[in-house]
Specification:
2 strands; about 60 residues
Length: about 60
């Protein structure tokens, strides 16, 4: 869901997430809690470096949701 090589840790996604599903990992990169995420797309749309792709699951494979 988050491409750690693209994420710049700007916090835009954290601020816009309506359910608080995004935090930062120990490297300062975005981390999405898939149990909280409602897949609204706000984070993906707001990411300035396109590091978030909700069409892919945690394992990088396409999601049917």
């Amino acid at each position: 869901m988050v491409d750690k090589t693209k994420c710049i840790g700007c916090g835009t996604c954290v601020a816009i997430c309506p359910v608080g599903a995004i935090s930062f990992d120990s490297d300062g990169k975005a981390l999405i809690d898939t149990n909280k995420c409602i897949r609204c797309g706000a984070c993906q749309a707001s990411c300035p470096v396109e590091a978030i792709d909700l069409s892919r699951g945690k394992n990088g494979k396409s999601s049917n949701n």
